[in-house]
Amino acid sequence: MNLLHSGKVRDVYADGDDLILVASDRLSIYDVVLPTPVPDKGALLTQLSLWWFDRLADITPHHVISASDVPAEFVGRAVRCRRLSMLPVECIARGYLAGLGLKEYEKQGTVSGVALPPGLVEGSKLPEPIFTPTTKAPVGEHDEFMTFDQVVDAVGPDTAARLRELTLAVYARGAEIAARNGILVADTKLEFGLDPAGEIVLADEVLTPDSSRFWPADSWEPGRPQFSFDKQYVREWSATMNWDRRPPGPEVPTEVVAATRARYVEVYERITGEEW
Q1: Alpha-carbon gap, residue 194 to 198, rounded angstroms
Q2: What is 2-81's CATH topology?
Q3: Which is more confidently placed, 130 or 7?
Q4: Which CATH number is 85-272's, of 3.40.50.2000, 3.30.470.20, 1.20.140.10, 3.90.79.10?
Q5: Which of 100, 165, 167, 184 could form a disulfide with 91 if both were Cys (CB 3.0 to 4.6 A apart)?
Q6: pLDDT exceeds 90 at position 136
């Protein structure tokens, strides 16, 4: 195998005509990879993604060929995938206002050019889920919000419309399933590519704590930060540090690592109904 790319969390290897996508235990916040890994994180992300890919297959094809036909040292945290031409858009669906979407709304009353009603606060449920794409920035740089017209310019009108349709459909299915188990999906980020026939294919990871904000439904309360089953806990911890959000990131204390792992495990178990 040949290493093609090492991202913030995943490493991509070429293996003949296929790719091997390996999820590491690395943790990134604000597009900076922190020096402290979270044990089992790569396996948790991989297994949860596989669980979701099975439940989304009627909405969109996905890139997974096999979760078992991978090198022995990567079993559990790797998948064999189809090669795709990845599209230059981070496809984000938001059902609630949080994170960078909240900051954008507070400045302009819009997110990715989508106008929202006045008076929304942190954690507000949106009137309906919205498509808020961003650019794909290199490691160490920040993604920027894109309007739908900018997506059209990047990939063409038909592909842009299909990306919006698929992103919102995946979000709706994910939010519906998670809600049965008391989890709100505040937002989620997806990536798509084109196969040789030009069909749009869901790739990378899907509906994981790294790509989504998961909130417990029974404690949701707009107007304040929400308890999150994701790396928001690490973001909040980092805010107590004298750190400018530039590399190198700070070492993460043992207790913060343990609490983060516990949140990843809990949301995996609550969503899937399976013990980790």
Answers
A1: 5
A2: Phosphorylase Kinase; domain 1 (3.30.200)
A3: 130
A4: 3.30.470.20
A5: 167
A6: no
